[in-house]
């Protein structure tokens, strides 16, 4: 689990990122979770945007993605979800 200080740090790091995944009408599926897991291994911190045509609630999507990818949910702001997972091989972010 992340502390408040670590979440604040990650939010500031994520501020300049653009979402690299979009969750739309299909919602969350295994393929999306697999791709997000792979992206997290490379980048550690990513943004996912939830489109208006998504039938699931954004908080539900955030929960499914963080559980499925075994990642930490940093924040849900508007329709954007910020996820963090420490990389095994390519560690870039050192948490305070």
From TrEMBL:
Pfam short name (any one): CRS1_YhbY
Alphabetically ordered keywords of this record: RNA-binding
Signal peptide: none
Domain CRM positions: 1-96
Top-level taxon of origin: Bacteria
Record flagged with keyword Manganese: no
NCBIfam families tied to this protein: RNA_bind_YhbY
Name of the protein in its database record: Ribosome assembly RNA-binding protein YhbY
């Amino acid at each position: 689990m992340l502390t408040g200080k670590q979440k604040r740090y990650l939010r500031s790091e994520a501020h300049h990122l653009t979402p690299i995944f979009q969750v739309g009408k299909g919602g969350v599926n295994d393929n999306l979770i697999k791709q997000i897991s792979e992206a997290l291994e490379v980048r550690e911190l990513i943004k996912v945007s939830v489109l208006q045509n998504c039938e699931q609630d954004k908080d539900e999507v955030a929960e499914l993605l963080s559980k499925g990818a075994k990642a930490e949910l940093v924040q849900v702001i508007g329709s954007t979800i910020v996820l963090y997972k420490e990389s095994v091989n390519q560690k870039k972010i050192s948490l305070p």
